[in-house]
Amino acid sequence: MSESPSRSLPLVFDEPRGRKKPPRHLADLDEAGRKELLTSLGLQGFRARQLSTHYFSRLVDDPAEMTDLPAAQRNELVSALLPTLMTPIRTLEADKGTTRKTLWRLFDGALVESVLMRYPDRATMCVSSQAGCGMACPFCATGQGGLQRNMSTAEIVEQVVAGARALARGDVPGGPGRVSNVVFMGMGEPMANYKAVIGAVRRMTDPSPAGLGMSARGITVSTVGLVPRINQLAEEGIPVTLALSLHAPDDELRNELVPINTRFSVREAVESAWNYAATTKRRVSIEYAMMRGINDQAWRADLLGDLLNEYGDWGWVHVNLIPLNPTPGSKWTASDPADEREFVRRLEAKGIPTTVRDTRGREIDGACGQLAASDS
To answer: Which residues are involved in binding S-adenosyl-L-methionine (predicted)?
Structure first.
């Protein structure tokens, strides 16, 4: 008899063991920690603020431009707090250059991806939080490859800083700009790397030059439904947007599509999302990848609407339908447009605000994990 999905899953809250940790970087530390590290190395603590200014505010990546640091100590200071974390392997462009997907090689050879998407009114970075993913969702390119390791706080932040540099330098059509939004919807399950993800959110929202000075309301943290971590996030006091990747309104189907559902059911996941909305007063996004003949039936739209309405009609939730970006050789494919429209109609008829996500990057292997899988 085959092993059940719940027993074959890894202990999703555990840090993968036996791997060398990424080099320590100033983005891993708060201001006090940066000063303390330099002091412990016999260097002047106030230099930490100068390094932070170069990294977070000026977006400098060339030590030669850090002219306020003493030349005799510059290399030592940079080595202590600004080690190289990741190297770009490939950058592919779509949408006339306004969508840029980058494949990165980390210090240990692990591959991760990030995507910069520029719109007329904003610029969004989609970042990875793990190299690979242990959630084993069968329709996801990343899930097919398994989990290699968690990423560090600084490795997550570096993806955003790299995007910010590209915008500031005018490398993206539309002139110089800034990253306004970050979504944790790249490779990995953010809630399974909770400590590093929260650290990255704090670095993004720390006022400049301690961090990037972003608004927490512009940051979205996605999860397949790790209920204890959703509840923990509700108590952090950081008003990020929570996105629950539901993909099915019933346990029978969701057990197949999102195996962690055998541990935390549809109702448990939705209830924790409602609790997050009630605690933070932030509307939750329900992510729902539309798969032809699998989860796109009209009756499932009705079931989803009824489930969400059980928790009240005070505007706590929004459904975001995602046309599936199929992976090569996969049986999973996008829904017929007519079925998609009917799904929207059924949800809206029950008073559930619903949108269909604007899909970008199909021609550049836009689904998370496709580039890494092709290069591994």
So the answer is: 188-189, 222, 245-247, 325
Residue 351 within any structural domain of the chain = yes
47 domain-assigned:
yes
Annotated binding site for [4Fe-4S] cluster: 133, 137, 140
Neighbours of 205 (CB within 10 A): 21
- pLDDT digits over 242-284, tens only? 999 999 999 999 999 999 999 999 999 999 999 999 999 999 9
Residue at 103 is within a domain: no
Over residues 52-109, the pLDDT tens digits come to 999 999 999 999 999 999 999 999 999 999 999 999 999 999 999 999 999 999 999 9
**Domain assignment of residue 349, yes or no:** yes
Q: Residue 32 sits in a domain of what CATH number?
A: 1.10.150.530
Residues in the annotated binding site for S-adenosyl-L-methionine: 188-189, 222, 245-247, 325
Residue 367 pLDDT greater than 80, yes or no? no
Question: For residue 88, is it left (φ>0), alpha (ψ between -120 and 50) or beta?
Answer: beta
Which residues are the active-site residues? 113, 368
User: What is the DSSP secondary-structure string of 41-104?
Assistant: TTS-TTHHHHHHIIIIIS----GGG-TTS-HHHHHHHHHHH----EEEEEEEEEGGGTEEEEEE
Domain extent for 64: 26-81
